[in-house]
């Protein structure tokens, strides 16, 4: 690493593991974001960010494609929200030039509005191949959905439209069919004091995020925040009453300011089996499964939102000492699986 730069969490833990187990680590020097592990027999295991060679390239690509992965999960009998893959006007125009027959089979904004009317509002609209909650919008009616389509359409080729799943938000971390940890998550939110505007409260909270040197994560005028507040009849100059919690985003990603707590001890065995089956369906060994359920202690009413083939854990690590210990144990088990593959 370049002098003065802080090494990524996973890389630091990986160096420690490899030093203790006779393995070598080579990482690109500027950021430590990509590299490989090498065993004495010359075999290598490559990594980039939070992605490891434990998952195949094809399986990882399908997991990243929310439309395909949702279709495969539904085909395996697993419960997912009713969904429709939308092609944006720009993308449809391009496909019509190349292959009019294919373009005629694709769904566009008109089909999106019809789908939402059939499943009922609210609905969620998200980029088909994005991560960390980027571009996720919630629409409470046709007007808001049309606005969301207009907002995301110029930036993306395909969008996934889904009915809203009712319940609490969980991330289940799995490795080779075993549950490593479960976190319950909440969206980025602030609590009113009856005096300050939402803008002021958000500024204070994001400044707290930046105190650890990792940046503010999100700005008050982020379009996702503005859209979510508008759907609730609020704006940045609104002054929430004392004690009132205001959710600022429709998704619970920690990378955009969300928070979480460890609920591993409460997960129902049936949900562990469901998560393992989801991984087998897509072909993943190490992954995070995002799930909505009334309670993690029961499989009743669950809906799988998506699978992440490269689950980042640094945000969980910073939640507190017990969470940090959990994350370090997860990485130790992941690295042990990599070592076994290298020596097999």
UniProtKB/TrEMBL annotation:
The keyword Repressor does not apply. Residues 70-336 form the ATP-grasp domain. InterPro entries: ATP-grasp. One of its GO terms (cellular component) is cytoplasm. SUPFAM superfamilies: Glutathione synthetase ATP-binding domain-like (SSF56059). GO terms for biological process: SOS response. Keywords: ATP-binding, Ligase, Nucleotide-binding. One of its GO terms (molecular function) is metal ion binding. This is ATP-dependent carboxylate-amine ligase. It comes from Pannonibacter tanglangensis.
């Amino acid at each position: 690493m370049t002098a003065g730069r802080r090494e990524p969490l996973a890389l630091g833990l990986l160096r420690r593991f490899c030093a203790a187990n006779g393995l070598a680590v080579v990482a690109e020097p500027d950021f430590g974001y990509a590299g490989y592990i090498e065993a004495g027999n010359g075999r290598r295991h490559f990594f980039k960010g939070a992605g490891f060679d434990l998952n195949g390239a094809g399986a990882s690509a399908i997991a990243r494609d929310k439309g395909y992965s949702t279709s495969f999960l539904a085909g395996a009998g697993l419960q997912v929200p009713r969904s429709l893959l939308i092609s944006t006007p720009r993308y449809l125009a391009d496909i019509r030039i190349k292959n009019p027959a294919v373009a005629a089979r694709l769904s566009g904004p008109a089909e999106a509005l019809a789908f939402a009317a059939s499943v009922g509002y609210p609905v969620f609209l998200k980029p088909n191949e994005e991560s960390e909650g980027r571009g996720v919008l919630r629409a409470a009616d046709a007007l808001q959905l049309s606005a969301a389509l207009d907002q995301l359409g110029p930036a993306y080729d395909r969008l996934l439209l889904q009915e809203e799943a009712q319940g609490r938000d969980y991330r289940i971390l799995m490795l080779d069919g075993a549950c490593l940890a479960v976190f319950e998550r909440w969206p980025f939110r602030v609590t009113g004091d009856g005096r300050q505007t939402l803008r002021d409260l958000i500024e204070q909270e994001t400044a707290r995020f930046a105190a650890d040197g990792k940046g503010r994560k999100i700005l008050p005028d982020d379009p996702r925040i503005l859209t979510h507040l508008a759907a609730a009849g609020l704006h940045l100059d609104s002054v929430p009453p004392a004690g009132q919690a205001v959710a600022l985003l429709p998704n619970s990603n920690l990378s955009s300011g969300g928070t979480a707590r460890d609920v591993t001890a409460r997960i129902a065995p049936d949900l562990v089996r469901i998560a393992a089956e989801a991984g087998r369906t897509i072909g993943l060994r190490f992954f995070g499964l995002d799930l909505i359920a009334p309670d993690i202690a029961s499989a009743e009413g669950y809906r799988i939102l998506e699978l992440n083939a490269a689950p980042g854990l640094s945000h969980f690590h910073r939640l507190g000492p017990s969470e940090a210990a959990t994350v370090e144990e997860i990485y130790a088990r992941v690295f042990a699986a990599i070592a076994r593959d290298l020596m097999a």
